[in-house]
Amino acid sequence: MIGEKIRPIAEEELRLPIRRLFPADRYMMRTEIPFNGKIIDVLLMDKKTHRLIAIELKIRKWKQALRQAAVHQLCANRVYVGLYRKYINESDKEFIARYGIGIIEVKRTCKKTLKAVVIQQPKRLKLMNPQYAKELRTYFLHKI
Amino acid sequence: MLLLGTNKQPLMFLRPRNVDKRILEQGLGLYEGFHVSATLADFMTNFIRDLGKPFFVDPMVYVFTLRPVQLLDDSTKTLKPCINVIARQYGSLFEQSAGKRPITPTDLLSNHSSLESITKNVLSYQKSKFAGQLSLISPYYDKYALWGEEISLSIGTSSSTPEVLIPPYFPFKNPTNSWYTVTLECARKALSLKERNDYIFPALLIAPQMLTDPDSLSQIIGDFGSEKFDGFFIWVNDFKEETETPERLNGLVQLIRGLSSGGRPVFKLYGGYFSALLFAYGLKGFSCGLGYGSEKNVFKYGAAGGRIVPKYYVPRLHRSIALGDAERMLRTYPSLRCGCTVCKGVYGDNMDGFMEMRRRGRCESHFLNVRKKELKEIDEKGLNHVFSDMEGTVQAFKGDLLVDVENLKRWRKTIESSTKEIL
Hints:
The complex is a heterodimer of chains A (144) and B (423). With 144 residues, chain A is of the alpha/beta class. Helix content of chain A is 28%, strand content 32%. In chain B, 40% of the residues lie in helices and 10% in strands. Chain B has 14 helices and ten strands. In chain B, the strands form two sheets. In chain B, strands 3-2-1-8-7-6-5-4 form an eight-stranded parallel β-sheet, with helices on one face. A two-stranded antiparallel ribbon of chain B has the order 9-10. The two termini of chain B are 33 Å apart. Chain A binds chain B through residues 35-38, 63, 66-67, 70-71, 73-74, 95, 99, 125, 127, 129-132, and chain B through 309, 322-325, 327-328, 331-332, 351-352, 354-355, 401-402.
């Protein structure tokens, strides 16, 4: 409706569509995991392969998200930034791709629910330190 | 007296912490002395004295101008013991007001004899704090594995006398502020109380905004420069050299140049690599922590800071960054890796070993090695060489979001514009 005000979206609201994208039957999920002086917003572990996926969520500040996500490349097999569609454009996407980081776009559907879609796959840059990954996997073993 | 003599390199005085004691002992040849607080615990005082390095004592009278709650112990809500000690030493005004109300300029200016006795007490405490039983030095010759080969084992003799004395000083925003008047008056009183072998170095604790006000800077240079002080300390409150504007950085250069124009030493409290560069512009040296503490906000005294998380000093960027950021950067760009003894031993060519830099003392030892090398380079190769290296780094990482080189651009711009002004 014209003139209808849409409530501003909060970063935490991006988690639910991410969970739907990486369903619970295949992935275990933890949030706000400390790593090397930073916090990983969403950390997922594939139940079969134990491979790790780190996702840095941001509504607007994609550069900040990129800087954070770049550090997560040290500990996760795949790293994404999860961004709200409204605030990213093509050149931003190209820039993020240069660093081997994938992009998950979160958008509102016509039913006004939020949906997450992978619009860019991460690259393998061999930045990972297996020791960090080992440390982070313990969050899935000991924490509920 | 190191602060009054001539030196080929900028002097680096360290802020000692209990957790750094082993590094401070083993790296004696990598720094010149200590900047200690009047509130330093006795066991650290003994430790510093036994190392035999030069030192000066920050009297910290400014803490009594802060909110009383900042002087209280978090759990007991009573006056912190270390504050209680200096309050008793400095006189009844401080004893009565500490933890109850902040002192005001009127408290000090209303009675000139009290100003004199306070200044006398403050100077006396600096002289007496380190006096006491001297113990034998244990030089730890067998433990130098962490350090570069060029380290000179400069073990001094036990020292109980501060290099210089600092009169009471207080933070001020500009010279019209009453605290400026109090600082100047205390410094003058200190001159009148000066004894043989005393060297009076007033400290100027200024707001960073003032650095862009040439009139204020001129007045300070005029007021303090016209007195017979032996030298000066400058502390620009909460001044982050890495992110400050070229205008403020330039103001700092002007202040240093103005105060040092008569040949008197000027020393910056809390500084980083930019301070080292200012050696060529009259700055004698600076103080800092081991990879941290290149700035300090006086108004945050007593704030619960928690444990200091180690940061890695990236030599080519001349600043410390979070370990995670550093590792990501060094894995992608091997040219940013460090070849110091510590780094060679911890990660060398295998970046998987970098995580061991988290261990206590590693980042600090690395910092000390690198900083010494930086200071030596400034002396031996000169600023032009340093600038050309900086320019190389700026060009190599231009447009890279993960490697911030803005500080290098700003520093270079500031120093070059200051140099043009001289010519």
